[in-house]
């Protein structure tokens, strides 16, 4: 399954610099608002050391990691919900993503203009929230108007949906994001078609100066407090450092560079892990002589659903799944040895796939 993460924030907070660092695509990084007029999309591989382990064991013809799409969405400004700064176009682009990486400026640099002339991560975050909330409120109110006429005729479903929509309206009017509204799965169906912007899970990305790595600074600490209150993830990065890391092709050079800044891993890796976490995603593997491959699924999926990611026929004609744990593969070295040692489990339709499982599906269509 393809994962798409949108990078949003005010102009000149480091979005495009970060995007350039984590993607093969090159967005124009410039010191003025709206230098990214069309959303830039970069497809990058998800780093996973388990693939290297399997490659060494299986010696396949090729290795295929799973991927994630990052979408660099042009800087939003106050009034975007009413079309300011091409806001309508940019907000529409956010509807298409699974998660939002909200980049917030947490550095002082007189050479980089701030749209409001000051560095205040809390205020910046609130500007973006307010614009997304206003756009969601507009969507909710339009649907309320449509349903009110139907509800007056006595339609039970319309009445129920209307109550759910009014709850969303009240929540948004109080300045809160939809993701903080406690709603049952059935009730979510009433607003699913609206693709509400503030319902999407968010990762806050505190963009700090190089000297503030790895722990951040006073600005990122303020943002951290907000993230904790919202039960959201926060990743501290320096976009300029990420750009330098991206230029290093040699793994040893990268490791030394990271060590110099006291970093165990790049900001990109931390961002990808955070995205997997908030979207409840896990990875399973298929391994054979032709290829070793990683597959992304949602946590809690059963074996047939996981098989369907490879091909819909695998799910339709699912018979069983053969599962090897990576630790057993490392111990016994080959699939045959795992089988002889009784370390291949045969699982049926109710098996819940676990992160790191090595799967082989049997199916008949």
H-E order: EHEHEEHEHHHEHEHHHEEHHEHHEE
Largest sheet: 6 strands, mixed
Strand order of the largest sheet: 2-4-1-5-6-7
In helices, the fraction of residues equals: 40-55%
- Gap from first CA to last CA: 22 Å
How much β-strand is present in the residues? 15-25%
Nearest-angstrom radius of gyration? Answer: 23 Å
Polypeptide structure, described:
This protein is of the alpha/beta class. It is 42% helix and 19% strand. The strands form 3 sheets. Strands 2-4-1-5-6-7 form a 6-stranded mixed sheet, with helices on both faces. Strands 3-9-8 form a 3-stranded mixed sheet, with helices on both faces. Strands 11-10-12 form a 3-stranded antiparallel sheet. A hairpin with a 3-residue loop joins strand 8 and strand 9 (291-298).
């Amino acid at each position: 399954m393809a994962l798409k993460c949108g990078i949003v924030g005010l102009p000149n907070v480091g979005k495009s610099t970060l995007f350039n660092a984590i993607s093969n695509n090159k967005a124009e990084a410039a010191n003025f608002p709206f230098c990214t007029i069309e959303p830039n999309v970069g497809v990058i591989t998800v780093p996973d050391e388990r693939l290297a382990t399997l490659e060494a064991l299986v010696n396949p013809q090729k290795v295929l990691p799973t991927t994630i799409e990052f979408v660099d969405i042009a800087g939003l400004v106050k009034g975007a919900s009413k079309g300011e700064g091409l806001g309508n176009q940019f907000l529409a682009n956010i509807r298409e993503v699974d998660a939002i990486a909200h980049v917030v400026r947490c550095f002082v640099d007189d050479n980089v203009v701030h749209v409001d002339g000051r560095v205040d991560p809390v205020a910046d975050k609130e500007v973006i929230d307010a614009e997304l909330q206003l756009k969601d409120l507009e969507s909710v109110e339009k649907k309320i108007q449509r349903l009110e006429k139907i509800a007056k005729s006595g339609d039970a479903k319309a009445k129920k949906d209307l109550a759910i929509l009014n709850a969303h309206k009240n929540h948004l009017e109080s300045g809160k994001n939809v993701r903080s509204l406690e709603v049952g799965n059935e009730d979510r169906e009433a607003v699913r078609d609206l693709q509400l912007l503030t319902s999407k899970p968010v990762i806050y990305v505190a963009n700090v100066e190089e000297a503030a790595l790895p722990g951040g600074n006073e600005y990122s600490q303020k943002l951290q407090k907000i993230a904790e209150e919202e039960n959201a993830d926060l990743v501290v990065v320096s976009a300029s450092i990420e750009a330098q890391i991206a230029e290093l092709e040699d793994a040893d050079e990268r490791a030394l560079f990271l060590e110099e800044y006291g970093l165990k891993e790049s900001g990109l890796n931390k961002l990808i892990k955070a995205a997997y976490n908030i979207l409840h995603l896990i990875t399973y593997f298929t391994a054979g002589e032709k290829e070793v491959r990683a597959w992304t699924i949602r946590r809690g999926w059963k074996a047939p659903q996981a098989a369907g990611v490879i091909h819909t026929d695998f799910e339709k004609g699912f018979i069983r799944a053969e599962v090897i744990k990576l630790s057993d593969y490392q111990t016994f070295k080959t699939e045959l040895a795992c089988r002889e040692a009784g370390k291949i489990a045969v699982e049926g339709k109710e098996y819940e796939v676990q992160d790191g499982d090595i799967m082989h599906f049997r199916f008949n269509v």
